[in-house]
Every structure is written in C-alpha cells, then in structure tokens.
Amino acid sequence: MTQRRFALVLLAVSLPLTALLLLPAGYLILRAGAVEPEQAIAYLTRPGTLRVVGRSLLLVITVAGATCAVAIPAAWLTVRSDLRGRRAWTVLLTMPLVIPSYVGALALVSMFGQRGMLQGWLAPLGVERLPSLYGFWGAWLALTLFSYPYVFLSVRAGLRGLDPALEEASATLGRSRLATLWHVTLRQLFPSITAGTLLVALYTLSDFGAVAIMQYNVFTRAIYQRLSLDLGLAALLSVVLIVLTAGLLVAVTLAERRRTYYTRRTPRSPRRVRLGRWQAAAQAFCGLIVLLALVAPVGVLAHWLINGLQHGETLRGVLAPLQRSLRAAGLAAAVSGLAALPFVFLQVRVPGPLTNLLARSAYLGYALPGVVVGLAFVFLGANVLHDLSIRFGRTDYRSLGLLIFAYTVRFLPQALGPARAGLLQVNPHLEESALTLGRSYPRALLSVTLPLMRSGVVAGVALVFLTTMKELPITLLLAPTGYDTLATRIWSASSEAFYARAAAPALILVAISALSLVYILEPDD
Prior knowledge:
Elements: H1 3-21, H2 23-33, H3 37-45, H4 47-80, H5 86-94, H6 101-112, H7 117-122, H8 136-160, H9 165-172, H10 177-188, H11 190-206, H12 209-213, H13 219-227, H14 231-256, H15 279-310, H16 319-349, H17 353-361, H18 364-367, H19 370-391, H20 400-424, H21 428-436, H22 441-452, H23 454-470, H24 473-478, H25 486-495, H26 499-520
Helix pairs in contact: 1-16, 1-17, 2-14, 2-19, 4-5, 4-8, 4-11, 6-8, 6-15, 8-11, 8-20, 8-23, 9-10, 11-14, 11-20, 13-14, 15-26, 16-17, 16-20, 16-23, 19-20, 20-23, 21-22, 23-26, 25-26
C-alpha cells in the first residue's frame, strides 16, 4: 500500500472520529443559538462577564509561564544530567498529576492558609495569621503545582528522542552550554514544549475544582453557577471557551509553521552532563517542587486519615471503587492512544489545511469543562440512546461504553500532543528507506516510525490514564448506577466535609498512580 492510499484510509477513519469528538461542542452551539441575540450581546458585554474573561486569560498566561519555568529545568535534570536518583525524581515529579485539583486545593488551604497547619506550627513564634490563599494567587499556585507534569512529561519525552549531535556541533563551534541550550536544544524541543503548554492552558481554562475552592471567578465557575439558572447562557459561556481554545490552537500552529525538528540521523543516547557543585542545588530544586506539590498535600491527607481512624473510620468499601477506576482509566487510555494515531500521522506526514483542521479540532473537547461535556452526553443519551436502551431491555442509557466515549472526547488531546511531538522528531527519510527495501507504507510505519516515536505515545497514554483516574464530573453524570470510583468517593466525602473519609481513597489514588508511573515511564538509558 502506498503512502497516498494509506493516507486516504486514515482520512476515512479520522473524519467520522472528528464528527464524534465535536459532538459536545455542536450541542453547546445549538443551545447557545437558542438565546436571543439581544440577550446574548447584553450578557457577553456586561462588566461582570468581561471580568470573567480577563481573569481567565490572566490565569491561563501566568499558569502556563510558571509551569514551563518549573517543568523544563526538571525534565532536563532527569534526562540529561547525572542527577542522583533520577528515576525516583521522575516518578515523584510526575505524581502531582494524579492529585485531583479540588483535593489539592483543599490540602493547600489546610496546610498554608490562614489558621492552617503551618500557622499553628508558627504560632509559638508569634505568627498569628498567614496571608490568605483565596483568590488569584491561590488558584495560580494550585493549578501550577498540579498541572506542571503535563509540560514535564512532554518535554522529557522530547529530550529522550532528541539527537545530541546538534548540541555537540554547537559546542565544537565555541558556544557555551547555556547558549547551546537556548539556541539549539530548546529550539528542537519546541513541539514538546508547546504540546505540554497547550495542555496546561486548556486544563486551566476547563478546571473547576481548584478555582471553586479558591473562590476565583473564572469561566468554569461562572458556567457552573449558570447551569441551574439558565442553560442557554451557560452554553453561551462555553462557546466563548471554544473560541478562546481555537485562538490558542491557531497561535500554536502559526508558531510551529516552517520549522524542522528532526535531524538527518538516528538519535543516540547523549552523555550526561555532570552537575558537580550544582548537584546540591539541583536536588534542592526538585525537592522544593515535590514538597509543595506532593509531600504537603499527601501529608494533609495522611493527617486526615489518622484522625479519622482514631475516631472510628474504617477502610472498608475502597477496593470496589479502586477496581472500577482502574478499568475505566485503562480502557480510556487505550482508546485515546489508538484514536490519536490517525490524526497525528495525517497532520505530520500529510500536512495540509484539512488534516491540520482535523487534528486541531480534536482539542476542542478538552477546552470544555467536564460538567459541560457530561451534560452534552446526557443530552445525547436521553434523546438518542434512550430508545435503543429500552429496545434492548435496559432502563438506563448510562453505560461503561458511553463513559469511555466521553473520557476519550475529553482527554484525547493528552495523547495527541506528546505523540505528535514524538513523530515530528522522526526523520521521514527513514520511512523512505524502508519503502525502497520493498516494505509497504503501513509496515514501514509499524516497524520503523512507531518504535522511534514510542516515548511520545507512551507519555500520552500515561497522561490519559492518570487524568481519567481522577476525573469527576463526567463520572458523576454518565457512570452506570452504582459505578462509583475513587474520584466520586473523594468528592462525596469532601463535599460533606468528611475529610477523614475522603483521605483513604485519595491516598490510594496517589499510591496506585505512583505504581503505574513506575511501570509506564521508560527507564533511563
């Protein structure tokens, strides 16, 4: 099979997939279109709505910048340096990704907020009150600490696939290590950096838990407040989110245009940079990140758990939600990883307006709050699938299949970004060489291209798995009756202020995810 014919097959697969992925956005546009034009204009131009837009954009920009400042040095240290304990640091630096934003925000407030645990420890020194965490700074801190792993994993995968030949050539020309890092390494890592940063920006736009806990009024909080008052206006705000997402995607596309990120040779393992006297500073940098993003939240959860056990709480009933969480997350990761490959191959190997549009449109579902995606599928289930459910003897349209479908729509971009970054670093001449040896194009991709982009694919699948484990709104709305997961157990307990009851499933969620990271992340060379 030739490349052209194979591209047509991928296009035939991608077109219906794109239609399914755009289903929630289409539903929201229909609902928003039902709002009277005068009412829509008045609502969108009022000062309160404009403030919501400004706060959302400010939060996106600052969180994206902060995550890059944290994640890029951490990824370089764990891949390219002789940092002691690289394997352990990689797992520890990735683990904050599995902490639900609302749990992390609650833990940060409990630890560092006014009258929190830290203030109690400082009271003997005369500290009566710490600065308030509520508002912008609290939301910024929480989202930065629990979303920087998106950039960390993407950049780490890019570094592992980067050929050090260009860096060595730069060094032989007399450039310093810092100049080489700035002009050569970061330039080659641009797809990985933009892929991770884009995920952080979309995550920040769509997150509800952290901003709700920190009482910072942005799009998701405004949409949630409108859901019970006027679904049309809630859909209208969601459409604005879609427009902002489209703007982000266009900006990324323009930034990446006419750049080349692969080299003319097969990548090889670089020599690790010796940190020498900077070893202690590097350890302190990684330790500070882990302290704030992992140790402090887990310490608070452990404190809640111990207090709960002392007051009669038990650990019964956690095993079944754990099994359901693992099953749903595993299926969602596998489906998303497979669905991402046609989009990635078309966009990178057959570039054009149509293929680029198909790939970029798959990101729209991630920009929508989980509660909105869930409501879109509730509408689909209630109006389309309900009759089918009755016909097959079911009284409820909700099913595991519909839940996995919604997860895929929501989290497919997490598989797309790292996989695309990995493919951009694979020299297409390697595939051409395989074709000249008589292999068909699909066999060339399977035997040559996929192994070389494996780091990016694995990183994307890992992201989907870990994020699905903690997903809450979609699970609440679409899971079959009685299909409670660790995330729903945590939410139901914490929403009733039973923090001791929420601590056990939250700690198990972190522990299981840590074990999965040890298995999923590739060992260093």
